[in-house]
């Protein structure tokens, strides 16, 4: 005989037991979703873990059934980010990255002289691919250099398709009679343009003026131009002061303007002098005069110290000044000692 009260109590207990065996909301896993997601599950109900896009399951079951005990089994599933292909090396450039996994972005830069042919950054997608595709670093090239007016390109090696690699050079020459201003060499820069090009300008020089007591020769043309030359010479006993040949320079004047300088007559009758390091008799060595620019050293006496020293004299365009300290002896005063025979004074101590 079962009392109605017992049925009531046991049905209550049964219900409590059933209620106590439901599974709770399952634990959440990083980067995973659970379906179906509920607050509790009856025993026998199934749940499935899915990794979110961009993540892969690793190391465990994905499907669980709520057991009679009401406790979900231990879940060792992990959702790990997908790996994109290694992209840490960019030839002639560099890659900035932390990892190559979803959802990271990496960025690219090229070395000087190279440019990014492609994007400057790429993202690892849910599918584990780089988007957009990583770039390459292509060498910078310059278009053919423009040729300045009145110039020609004297050296230039273009790459395929007329362009030139960064760092290569082009050398220019001016046409004859034109002078170059600036550097003859232009370089293809890392920016893909050329360094400054030279300029060629027509340069004329005036006709050279004939020097007094001399002559000048130059090409018989209606005008004289850059690099034209003129030669100078002097009449007898005159000496050219300046180079024999002069050239029309790029500033439109001559490299020099030589003139003719007169030689000197020596008024001293008798003296021993030093000429080019040697003792000579001035009256013999320079009996035909001394040429402009020539220099001798006279001997003078220091009376107190009874010694000799020298003083220079030079022929300058017909003028030769004898040093004041020099005393010429009359040829009769043969008993006097010439300064050149007196012992030299000590150099100043
Ligand atoms: C090089 O340049 C010239 C003149 O600009 C052009 O006619 C020629 O087709 C170019 N060659 C190449 C290979 O691009
Ligand atoms: C011309 O440029 C080249 C290369 O840029 C350099 O080496 C050279 O010294 C320059 N010459 C002059 C005269 O400036
Ligand atoms: C070349 O290009 C760079 C960058 O655009 C610029 O700064 C430079 O002035 C250019 N050089 C010449 C000679 O034009
Ligand atoms: C060339 O001419 C300029 C002015 O016409 C002058 O200043 C300069 O000194 C001259 N140079 C030479 C070497 O004669």
TrEMBL record:
Which Gene3D superfamilies does the record associate with it? Complement Module, domain 1
List S-S links within the chain. Answer: 23-66, 110-137, 205-248
SUPFAM superfamilies per the record? Complement control module/SCR domain (SSF57535)
Q: Name one GO cellular component term.
A: extracellular space
- Show which residues constitute the signal peptide: 1-19
Query: Which keywords accompany this UniProt record?
Result: Disulfide bond, Glycoprotein, Heparin-binding, Lipoprotein, Repeat, Secreted, Signal, Sushi
Q: Where in the cell is it found?
A: Secreted
The highest taxon in the source lineage is Eukaryota
Q: Domain Sushi, which positions?
A: 21-81, 82-139, 140-202, 203-262
Main location group: secreted
Pfam families for this protein? Sushi, Sushi_2
Q: Which GO terms describe its molecular function?
A: heparin binding
Q: Which PANTHER family match?
A: BETA-2-GLYCOPROTEIN 1 (PTHR19325:SF549), COMPLEMENT COMPONENT-RELATED SUSHI DOMAIN-CONTAINING (PTHR19325)
Please give the function described in this protein's UniProt entry.
Binds to various kinds of negatively charged substances such as heparin, phospholipids, and dextran sulfate. May prevent activation of the intrinsic blood coagulation cascade by binding to phospholipids on the surface of damaged cells.
Q: What is this protein called?
A: Beta-2-glycoprotein 1
């Amino acid at each position: 005989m079962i009392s109605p009260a017992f049925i009531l109590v046991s049905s209550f207990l049964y219900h409590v037991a059933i209620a106590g065996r439901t599974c709770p909301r399952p634990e959440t896993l990083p980067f995973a979703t659970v379906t179906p997601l509920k607050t509790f599950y009856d025993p026998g109900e199934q749940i499935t873990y899915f990794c979110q896009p961009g993540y892969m399951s690793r190391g465990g079951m994905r499907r669980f059934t709520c057991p009679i005990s009401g406790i979900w089994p231990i879940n060792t599933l992990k959702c790990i980010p997908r790996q994109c292909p290694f992209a840490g090396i960019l030839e002639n450039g560099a890659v900035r990255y932390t990892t190559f996994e979803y959802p990271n972005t990496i960025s690219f830069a090229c070395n000087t002289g190279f440019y990014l042919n492609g994007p400057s950054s790429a993202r690892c997608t849910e599918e584990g691919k780089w988007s957009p595709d990583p770039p390459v670093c292509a060498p910078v090239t310059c278009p053919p250099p423009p040729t300045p007016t009145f110039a020609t390109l004297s050296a230039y090696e273009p790459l395929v398709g007329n362009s030139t690699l960064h760092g290569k050079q082009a050398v220019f020459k001016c046409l004859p009679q034109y002078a170059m201003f600036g550097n003859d060499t232009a370089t293809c820069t890392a920016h893909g343009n050329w360094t400054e090009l030279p300029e060629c300008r027509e340069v004329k020089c005036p006709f050279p003026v004939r020097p007094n007591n001399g002559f000048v020769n130059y090409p018989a043309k209606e005008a004289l131009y850059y690099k034209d030359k003129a030669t100078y010479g002097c009449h007898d006993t005159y000496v050219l002061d300046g180079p024999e040949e002069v050239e029309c320079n790029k500033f439109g004047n001559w490299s020099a303007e030589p003139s003719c300088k007169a030689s000197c007559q020596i008024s001293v009758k008798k003296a021993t002098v030093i000429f080019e390091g040697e003792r000579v008799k001035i009256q013999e060595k320079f009996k035909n005069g001394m040429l402009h620019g020539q220099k001798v050293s006279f001997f003078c006496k220091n009376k107190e110290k009874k010694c000799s020293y020298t003083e220079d004299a030079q022929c300058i365009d017909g003028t030769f000044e004898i040093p004041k300290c020099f005393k010429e002896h009359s040829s009769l005063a043969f008993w006097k000692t010439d300064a050149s025979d007196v012992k030299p004074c000590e150099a100043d101590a």
